[in-house]
């Protein structure tokens, strides 16, 4: 509970303070006071407390107002535990969308437990979990809170890797550990560790894990890398052991007969619910599939959905920019966004570059801000007049 609440506090304050840094104890062991230690003002307090009450449905027990009366981590843990003893049937998670309109996704605890029941046999011999993902996101909640409970792993045997370098995994891990990560974390591990103990088992989700990365990790010795397909709206839909295989649906999911772009879930209460696919899918058969690209135009950066179109819109609002294009870097360039900008005054590039830094920082999250900006007289286009990729200078 303490880890869940602390992760949520940090996430909410980070959103409320663009460009700022929220420094809190990584393990949450200190008696954290939101006002005195984090300088949380009254408006921020309402937002953070509201997010926590929403996540755990504290309104169902009528206890949410106590969060404002006792704004400390210890007190919030107690309030939430009291609330959950009264009502714990549902939880709400937010999507990782970065357009300012993150969607709220409510799941019954019984439905989430369906996934854990099918995951547990895959990791039955694990006795400790190390995580590089926050526990208040649905992926982190399932794998670092519910799965340990199913495996009989105590809270003290769940360690946090987020404040450590990827190279430190060699010293922090023990034989038989389960490592919960995302593609960017695993990419860092692959670069930092030429050899990985074969006794370690990994999990990756939040974005597609490229085949070359999966192959590199397994080739370095990693015992197994389980890939989970899903979203905040659906939770886990399927899994696979490596990137060469299709994802296999969990038993309670099915391909919708009405459309290949829909899933059908049999809920814990035996009712059925349709869900649209977030990706275009290539079906191998009725129980297995390959994702072949996002249907909504989002790209994943550090496990977060980022929309290049939103970044382009913000750039075009700048009075000194005539045109702009934004896209994800190529694998050889990096893993962030890049932008090509056509300035209104070709002679004012130096001044525009300086003003643009503050302009973007005030309007975008750190993951949305392009890390490479190229200036030119016109956008790069092909013979058909369509925007094309460019090489970072």
TrEMBL record:
Molecular functions per Gene Ontology: ligase activity, forming carbon-sulfur bonds
Short name of one Pfam family: AMP-binding_C
InterPro entries the record matches: AMP-bd_C, AMP-bd_C_sf, AMP-dep_synth/lig_dom, ANL_N_sf, ATP-dep_AMP-bd_enzyme
UniProt domain AMP-dependent synthetase/ligase: residue ranges: 95-239
Domain AMP-binding enzyme C-terminal residues, every copy: 312-386
Protein name as it appears in the record: Acetyl-coenzyme A synthetase
């Amino acid at each position: 509970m303490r880890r869940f609440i602390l992760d949520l506090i940090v996430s909410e304050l980070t959103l409320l303070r663009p460009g700022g840094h929220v420094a809190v104890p990584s393990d949450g062991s200190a008696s954290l006071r939101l006002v005195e230690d984090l300088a949380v003002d009254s408006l921020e307090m309402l937002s953070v407390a509201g997010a926590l009450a929403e996540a755990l449905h504290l309104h169902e027990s009528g206890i949410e107002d106590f969060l404002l009366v006792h704004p400390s981590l210890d007190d919030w843990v107690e309030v939430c535990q009291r609330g959950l003893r009264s009502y714990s049937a549902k939880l709400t998670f937010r999507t990782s969308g970065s357009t300012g309109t993150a969607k709220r996704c409510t799941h019954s605890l019984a439905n989430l437990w369906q996934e854990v029941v099918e995951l547990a046999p895959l990791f039955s011999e694990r006795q400790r979990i190390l995580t590089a993902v926050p526990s208040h996101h649905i992926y982190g909640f399932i794998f670092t809170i519910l799965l340990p409970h199913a495996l009989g792993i105590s809270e003290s045997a769940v360690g946090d890797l987020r404040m450590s370098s990827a190279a430190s995994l060699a010293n922090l891990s023990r034989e038989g550990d389960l490592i919960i990560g995302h593609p960017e974390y695993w990419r860092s591990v692959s670069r930092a560790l030429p050899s990985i103990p074969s006794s370690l088992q990994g999990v990756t989700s939040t974005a597609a894990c490229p085949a070359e990365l999966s192959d590199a990790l397994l080739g370095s010795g990693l015992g197994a890398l389980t890939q989970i397909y899903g979203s905040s709206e659906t939770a886990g839909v399927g899994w696979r052991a490596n990137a060469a295989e299709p994802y296999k649906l969990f038993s309670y999911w099915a391909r919708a007969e009405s459309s290949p772009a829909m899933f059908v879930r049999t809920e814990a209460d035996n009712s059925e619910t349709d869900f649209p696919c977030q990706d275009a899918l290539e079906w191998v058969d009725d129980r297995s599939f390959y994702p072949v690209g996002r249907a909504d135009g989002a790209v994943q950066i550090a496990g977060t959905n980022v929309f290049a179109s939103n970044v382009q819109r913000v750039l075009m609002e700048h009075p000194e920019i005539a045109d702009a294009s934004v896209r994800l870097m190529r694998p050889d360039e990096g893993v962030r966004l890049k932008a090509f900008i056509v300035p209104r005054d070709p002679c004012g590039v130096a001044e525009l570059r300086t003003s643009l830094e503050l302009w973007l920082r005030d309007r975008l999250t750190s993951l949305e801000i392009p890390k490479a900006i190229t200036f030119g007289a016109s956008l790069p286009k092909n013979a058909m007049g369509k925007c094309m990729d460019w090489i970072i200078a």
